Amino acid sequence: MELKKIARDVWAELEEIGDLAALEKFRVKYLGKKGAITSLLRSMGNMAKEERPIFGKAVNDLSKQVEERILLREAELKEKARLFQLKKETLDVTLPGRKAILGHRHPIKQVMEEIETIFLNMGYTIAEGFEVEDDYHNFEALNIPKDHPSRDMQDTFWIDTDVLIRTHTSSVQSRVMEKQNPPVRIIAPGRVYRCDDDVTHSPMFHQVEGLVIDQGITFGDLKWTLTIFLKTLFGEEREVRFRPSYFPFTEPSCEVDVSCFACGGVGCRLCKHTGWIEILGSGLVHPNVLRNVGYNPMEVSGFAFGLGIERIAMLRYGIDDIRLFFESDMRFLRQF
Ligand SMILES: [Zn+2]
Q1: Global model pTM greater than 0.90
Q2: By percentage, how much of the chain surpasses pLDDT 90?
Q3: What is the distance between the terminal CA atoms of the chain, rounded to a whole angstrom?
Q4: Do 45 and 126 reside in the same domain of the chain?
Q5: Cα of 259 to ligand 1 centre, how many Å?
Q6: Adjacent-strand bridge partners of 201
Q7: What separation in Å is there between the alpha carbon of 241 and the centre of ligand 1?
Q8: 29 Cα: distance to centroid of ligand 1 (angstroms)
Q9: Which residues, including other chains, have CB under 8 Å from residue 320's CB and lie 6 or more apart?
Q10: What is the distance in A from the centroid of ligand 1 to the CA of 196?
Q11: Total tally of structural domains belonging to the chain
Q12: How confident is the model at residue 18 (pLDDT cuts 50, 70, 90)?
């Protein structure tokens, strides 16, 4: 009687199961250790001996059938869950995409790369030196001995009596020449440090140094090279002017101006009403500098130049405070 009732209920109940958790509950209810079907086998003890095999076989058949149906149902439910998951995760490819925020190069880096490109196109290579330098390469090799008054022109950060962080990229000159025989044709961009801090001076700023050494290099090569460079950087219509100046490591030395790109030379606030803007320092390499690296000044000659990147960027973009470059203020940086 019990068996017939169970056999009737079990199929109806199975049909109504909607998920895997309910199916597991169902399995325990009928086929578990204390399940309804399992319990039937235990009740056989009370039966007449001859009834037992028939009853036992009927219970086992039912048990087997239920188990098979559970497996089938389980497969159905898993498939159903999978389809549901797929539907839920469908991508709507017609939705507009989210725009990625692209960063861009810092204005200082932009100007630096522009200068590098001009010289790379002229056949120069890029050289690197050390930011932590010794006194010899930053000063003495460049014809600036210990008691030289021009050391006062550069407020140096000293690490100890002989070690400093470089005050100019000119320190790369001797490093390159010590390792390489002429011809030399390099530019050396990089960070330099001076003990100075106001609207036009930063304790850290960037310079580009240039150096050319070969047989028969004259002031004419210097003039031609820097004129081409400045006209490429500031525009073909710019006038270029060379003024006599003094640096310990060049002789003769000059400063180089371009006609003001704000007023075209008439005079304005940017050029302090002179019509000219000072851009770089330059000169023919001093014979002492050549001797210090073992070159013979009677055989080779050359010119060197250096300019500050921040100054170029400030002039070009009309920025009047150098500190803006290093404050990482996105309102400022996004403008470039
Ligand atoms: Zn002007």
Answers
A1: no
A2: 50
A3: 90
A4: no
A5: 8
A6: 198
A7: 15
A8: 95
A9: 199, 314
A10: 27
A11: 2
A12: confident
